[in-house]
Amino acid sequence: MAKIQPLPAASPSAEWHHGDGGGGGVQGKQAVYTVWMKSLVFNGHGCTVYGSDGRVAFRVDNYGCRGSRDVFFMDTAGNTLIGIQTKSFGMLKRWEASRHHGGEEETTTPWFRVQRGRGRGRGGAMATVTLHGGVGMAYRIDGCPSKSEYRISRGCGGGGGEVVAEVARKQTACGVVLGEDVLTLTVGPDADHLLVLGLVVVCGLISRAM
Q1: CA gyration radius for the chain?
Q2: Does the domain spanning 2-206 belong to CATH 2.40.160.200?
Q3: Which residues, in sequence order, are CB contacts of 175 under 8 Å at separation 6+?
Q4: Contacts of 76 (CB under 8 A, 6+ apart)
Q5: Rounded distance between C-alpha atoms, residue 5 and residue 152, angstroms
Q6: Please, which pLDDT band fits residue 16 given cuts at 50, 70 and 90?
Q7: CA distance 85 to 77
Q8: Highest-pLDDT range among 22-36, 87-101, 109-123, 183-197
Q9: Most exposed residue of 4, 25, 123, 142, measured as fewest CB within 10 angstroms of its CB?
Q10: Strand stretches in the chain, DSSP E
Q11: Contact (Cβ atoms closer than 8 angstroms) between residue 93 and residue 86
């Protein structure tokens, strides 16, 4: 089971506002996060998300083995924001996420589901995302999480949807590219930041980065 240790309060740049309907945290402006696909806990597995001011904003810590079936994405106070379960059906896997508020699960119905795609051919995506109550694909993930480069777009066949977030390897101010486990996440102004962060965690599970 993945857990978190409480940390100092998050910076304003990492704040999100609890939304209605399918949303979880629409910030209203573009934001850039640094995602380190490592846990700050010794011998732990997980990831650490930093705000633009360099302070820890969110964190996943898995004290068990890599690839836990239950992962919890939490804020710096230790409150669960998203619970993610890995479900296996033979050779097939999917990831189901539920929203939490005040540390409690809001509903037993998944907020979103991620199904790994073939990523080949016309309209082939690396993964597709459906939202509770929605019809068809709501978002698609294109690229290669194992290579630390991918983008999240609103659902549209052929990859023509609006890009709401992009992930790439982080570069220093002087242009030095850091390791594949240090990422820059750029989230668009109209995107649900909490949803995007949840999808980044799922991508980490897909690529077995944590």
Answers
A1: 16
A2: yes
A3: none
A4: 6, 7, 8, 9, 10, 56, 57, 58, 59
A5: 29
A6: very low
A7: 22
A8: 183-197
A9: 123
A10: 2-3, 31-36, 45-50, 56-62, 70-75, 80-89, 92-101, 104-105, 112-116, 127-131, 139-144, 149-154, 163-169, 182-187
A11: yes
Query: Residue 17 has which token pair?
Result: 């506002």
The CA distance from 105 to 122, in Å, is: 38
Contact 87, 97 (CB under 8 A): no
Reported as half-sphere exposure (CB side, CA atoms, 13 A), residue 26 has a value of: 10
Over residues 33-78, the pLDDT tens digits come to: 999 998 887 777 889 999 999 999 999 987 666 667 889 998 988 8
Which phi and psi angles does 201 have, rounded to 5°?
A: -65, -45
Take residue 11 and report the two structure tokens written for it. 């910076």
**What is the residue-wise DSSP string for 45-86?**
EEEEEE-TTSSEEEEEEESS-SS-SEEEEEETTS-EEEEEEE
Every domain of the chain and the residues it spans: 2-206
Residue 6 has pLDDT above 50, yes or no: no
Nearby residues of 111 by Cβ (< 8 Å), 6 or more positions away: 22, 24, 82, 97, 98, 99, 131, 132, 195, 198
The residue ranking higher by pLDDT, 83 or 102, is: 83
Dihedral of alpha carbons 66, 72, 74, 78, sign: negative
